[in-house]
From TrEMBL:
This is (S)-3-amino-2-methylpropionate transaminase. It comes from Patiria miniata (Bat star). Belongs to the class-III pyridoxal-phosphate-dependent aminotransferase family. NCBIfam families: GABAtrns_euk. GO terms for cellular component: mitochondrion.
């Protein structure tokens, strides 16, 4: 096997976490199937998966029926989770199946289930009132709100971005970031206060108060499902069918060939083609009075099928935006918070200056966006909603950021990601009839199945063996583990993945 066990002692948790907070599952060091001691990053974590019933099991099926009777919208539910019993990298379902989770609630649990540092925050009586009283943060914030923002968001802010706006979810963050980009674009263009005609016309959605400005997005993108975001979400028909569209421009996102080292000139030409289309679209829309005020892009397209582009592509994209006075909005909702092996995926590109906006949610627990000073709003109530964030999430995130920094979990994602990628490439080399295009950054990894059905079948068979993997795009199998994912977890996944591939 390529993935032999390694003794890992570099990141050790504080002794205060080792008390049993979790009922009957306390253990110390684990002994894995390969008989090597492994230092677990999450104290008392389970030793491996255990599958007792078909999934969904009988209790899940019962609950799915119950849910459907209430919502008539339960078609996406796979099974119900026992969140009390889930721990670290392991999800336990309501039928008692224990699954190694490499998908982590669609990439949104940063340091594993029931992490003691997060539980401590919620147990603290000092934090009780932040949970009991949900404030309208834009009007009546609590005394500690600025400190919460500092401890949660500013401790991990992308270099050069000193301002942040909390929001509710990923879509809400993107919606408001592009609104702020529109405001700034209009303010610069107008060069003075709004006219009476603009004030009168905007109330019913007419020009000149509501200018026909646009945002350019890319093929394969996913930026959320609110009506505004849908006009920038181009990955699958199911997201957009039957909904009106703002008709904003879309440029092609590069489709790279793998392995990268064998297709250097082809991939460069592909990226150049896409960038030329960006320029053409910005210029053409300007002539039509439909100025592109912002370009929005994911560092790695997630829902669209784990599509990557080179650092050079993004550097050139930033240069194009700058030259044309267009804001660059990086949607790091899925790539942010360490999963790429950098805290923010764009840190890997060596951009000559910070992006104009970086949006986030998922592993950051709270939505929001960072922005450059020049994009700050110039009047109250332009960017606003009732809640504008959620204080308990900020308290939890503050504790999570501390753990990530103290245990260097971003470095861990780099190391575990490399280990996992080596294993995936090894499987790809041994099963070329089933797998292709292994790719990724850090633990943000994907590999393609032969087609849609084949990828789904593999994920389903691997789940029967106790490991959760995700799917994305047309035929990609994607991995989005927590930052406490370690090589011994990769071993478990790779062994079961190997068994399934051998059985096909
Ligand atoms: C890159 C990206 N942007 C935005 C979103 C939307 O986030 P939310 O589902 O929290 O609205 C997602 C969700 O998957 C995403 O992956």
């Amino acid at each position: 096997m390529a993935w032999i066990q390694r003794l890992r002692l570099s990141r050790i948790y504080p002794s205060s976490w080792t008390g049993c907070f979790h009922g009957s599952v306390c253990r110390g060091l684990s002994v894995t199937s390969a008989n090597a001691a492994v230092q677990k990053l999450v104290p008392n974590e389970y030793d491996g998966p255990s599958v007792k019933t078909p999934i969904p099991g009988p209790r899940s099926q019962e609950l799915i029926a119950k849910l459907d009777a209430i919502t008539k919208n339960s078609g996406t539910v796979q099974y119900f989770v026992d969140f009390k019993a889930s721990l670290g990298n392991y999800l336990v379902d309501v039928d008692g199946n224990r699954l190694l989770d490499l998908f982590m609630q669609i990439s949104s649990i940063p340091i594993g289930y029931n992490h003691p540092a997060v539980i401590d925050v919620l147990k603290s009586s000092d934090n009780l009132h932040a949970m009991v009283n949900r404030p309208a943060l834009g009007v009546f914030p609590g005394e500690t709100f600025p400190d919460m923002l500092d401890q949660a968001f500013m401790q991990c802010a992308p270099k050069g971005l000193t301002k942040v706006q909390p929001m509710m979810c990923g879509a809400c963050s993107n919606e408001n970031a592009i609104k702020q980009a529109f405001l700034t674009y209009r303010r610069k263009k107008r060069g003075g206060p709004a006219t009476q005609e603009e004030m009168d016309s905007c109330v019913t959605g007419k020009e000149p108060g509501c200018p026909p400005y646009t945002v350019l997005s890319f093929t394969g993108s996913f930026h959320g499902r609110t009506l505004g975001c849908l006009s920038m979400t181009n990955s699958k028909p199911i997201f957009r069918l039957d909904f009106p569209s703002l008709g904003w421009p879309v440029a092609p996102f590069p489709r790279l060939n793998y392995p990268l080292e064998d297709f250097v000139s082809e991939n460069k030409a592909e990226e150049s083609r896409c960038l030329q289309e960006v320029i053409r679209s910005i210029e053409e829309n300007k002539v039509r009075g439909r100025d592109v005020a912002a370009v929005i892009v994911e560092p790695i397209q997630g829902e669209g099928g784990d599509n990557l582009a080179s650092a050079d592509f993004f550097r050139q994209l930033q240069a194009i935006c700058k030259e044309h006075g267009v804001a660059l909005v990086l949607d790091e909702v899925q790539t942010g918070c360490g999963t790429s092996g950098h805290f923010w995926a764009h840190e890997a590109w060596g951009l000559p200056e910070p992006p104009d906006f970086v949006t986030f949610s998922k592993k950051m627990l709270s939505g929001g966006y960072y922005f450059k000073d020049e994009f700050a709003v110039d009047a109250p109530s332009r960017i606003f909603n009732t809640w504008m964030g959620d204080p308990p999430k900020l308290l939890m995130l503050g504790a999570i950021i501390k753990v990530i920094q103290e245990m260097d979990l971003v470095g861990q994602a780099r190391e575990s990601g490399q280990y996992m990628m080596d294993g995936i490439k090894d499987l790809q080399a041994r099963y070329p009839q089933h797998l292709s295009r292994a790719r990724g950054m850090g633990t943000h990894i994907a590999v393609d199945g032969k087609d849609t059905e084949s990828a789904a079948k593999i994920a389903s068979l691997v789940r029967e063996k106790g490991v959760i993997m995700g799917l994305s795009g047309k035929q990609s199998i994607r991995f989005r583990p927590a930052l406490v994912f370690q090589p011994h977890h990769a071993d478990i996944c790779l062994e079961r993945f190997d068994d399934v591939l051998a059985s096909l």
